[in-house]
Amino acid sequence: MVASPKGAGGSLSPRITGILAIVAIALGLFVYVNEIEGDMDRRAAEDEAAKIHSGFDATAIDSVSLVTLDGVSATFERRDGRWWVTSPVEARAEAAALDAIASALANMPREGTVGESADLNGFGLGAAATVVRFQVGGDEYGLRIGRSTPVGGHRYVARLGDGSVAGNTEVAYVASYRVNAFNRNLNDLRDRRLFAVESARVRRLRITWPQDGAGAESPGEPFVVELERGENGAWWVAAPIRAQADESMIRELLSNLIYLRASGFVDERTPAAAAALRQVEIEFDWTLDAEGPAEAIGLTAIGNESALEGRVRIGGLVPGGRIIEGPEGRWATIASERLDDFPKDLERYRFKRLAEFDLASARRLEFSFAAPVESESRVPLRVVATLEEAGWSSVDRLLDRDAISELVRLLSGLDADGVVAEEMGPNELAGVGLSPPRARINVEGGAEAGGPVVTLADLRLGRVDSDGRLLVQRGDRPQVFRLSAASAAGLPVSESAYLEYFEVDVSTDGSGEVAEGEGGSEPIDVDPLDGLDLGEG
After folding, report:
1. Helices (H), ranges, 259-292
2. pLDDT tens digit string along 8-65?
3. Which residues lie across from 82 on neighbouring strands?
4. Contact 158, 145 (CB under 8 A)
5. Cβ-contact 314, 260 below 8 angstroms
6. What is the pTM of this model?
7. 170 sits in which H/E element
8. Sheet-wide strand order for 73-79
9. Distance CA 419, CA 152 (A)
10. How far apart are CA 156 and CA 144, in angstroms?
11. Which residues pair with 382 in a beta bridge?
């Protein structure tokens, strides 16, 4: 009697179950290797066989020669992984454009084959063909590009030098877009970057411009601004004064400088181009941190300077734009309007932020005003407003909620127009209406409701100078700033201005109309600068 493989419960024994599992896994691997993976290999082989050129990838292409769309015979070489133009000039090439050309040559697939032909002229593959030559490991290759096919949106192509003993050449056709990479002007295949370096590596920046007329042929003593980045990463103005720099301004400046692109190239150094370059509009010299690679693009040695230093000069106008000399001493042109990206004003580089906070964090607002001169015995006005669900409100004042909200928005990112003084003594501060201040605005709040209360802004408003500019001081800084009349227009610079613009007249219904039965009077125009001394300070 044969023993049953099942146990008492009728199930397979663990030993047999394990054997079956191994068999199933082996069968799955066999199917994967022989069917799925084998199919993938077959497809890869078919794709490789369909290529016009096969046996190498794009990164193996060492050089490319072609006639550009503007009729220039140009040669490009890959050196240490970077593309260069070697003819008709020596210059950096546009990496993305040359990588696209290399990819098109290495990966271009046939859509079909016409057959072999000894007469290539009928396909536009004769003398009229676009010819692209390239090298892979010292071996020469080439591609002929002919005319479009009668239908289907394709182009005829053939390998250069590809022919049988009878002189016939295989004629194939490819999708038209496959040859678009070769349709470039020479300037489109040149690297338009004048320099490229991470802004975080810039340690010092020196900016120079002529003082007595931009672009003067014989300028006087140039104006120089020197900027330096401290150990904590903060930027400072080092010359002609020592002062904190405007961080956002410096970031924008470095971005504009680093990402500046040439609109054209000046390869012939004519006397006219040299004269235009002498008309210096602005010049930049910088020093990089020594950490990291020292050979950032565009920062190769200039004369006796190290690779950690660079210079660029922007000069006068030439055909095609404004001439510029890059860090490698090469000349190019940039769009004329790009000069506006580089301010020639010391004030633009100085720290002038009066207040900056997250608008949603403001929860308490306090105004205080000096008593008018004519009523010194009266208690100065002080108003406290808090942010409630319905908006800004005060216990004892009827506020214009929209006006208060707009004021807080203005204060959340308020910049001065300039700096009057780095510091003033007590008598000087009193003379300009800042000790005590004519008006004071304090904003408090925090990241979370109910959390710790912090001061978000503390502004002290003084008098208006002879040019109509308001003098302002931050509570945490000694500098005295100025605001133009336009910039100060939304601030409560006096008690009368506050009452006019930030409170609702109790004699009205809040809409500006006199409430029924309340009576009224003719409106009175109130000067927001009422009570302020407009004389010189």
Report:
1. 271-278
2. 455 567 778 777 778 778 777 776 666 665 666 677 677 788 899 999 999 999 999 9
3. 79
4. no
5. no
6. 0.73
7. strand 169-175
8. 91-92, 82-87, 73-79, 61-67, 130-136, 139-148, 154-159, 169-175, 112-117
9. 69
10. 8
11. 368
Q: Which two tokens stand for residue 95?
A: 């990496």
Neighbours of 436 (CB within 10 A): 14
Identity (one letter) of the amino acid at 343?
A: P
Which residue from 273, 290, 243 is spatially nearest to 422, judged by alpha carbons?
A: 243
The structural domains of the chain, with segments of one domain joined by +, span: 58-189, 199-349, 353-502
Q: Are strands 82-87 and 91-92 parallel, antiparallel or unpaired?
A: antiparallel
Q: Which residue has the tokens 């690679």?
A: 293
> Torsions phi, psi of 172, nearest 5?
-120, 175
Indicate the fold that domain 353-502 takes in CATH: Immunoglobulin-like (2.60.40)
Our measurement of the distance from residue 34's CA atom to the centroid of its chain's CA atoms, rounded to an integer in Å, reads 52
Query: Looking at the chain, how many residues does it have?
Result: 537
Q: Which two tokens stand for residue 528?
A: 């927001």
Rounded to 10 degrees, what is the CA torsion of 511, 515, 518, 519? 70
Give 407-430 as a DSSP string. HHHHHTEEE-SEEEES---HHHHH
At residue 460, φ and ψ (nearest 5 deg) are: -115, 120
Could you tell me which residues are beta bridge partners of residue 113? 172
pLDDT digits (tens, 9 = 90+) for 399-454: 999 999 999 999 999 999 999 999 999 999 999 999 999 999 999 998 676 678 89
Distance CA 34, CA 41 (A): 10
Residue type, 346: L
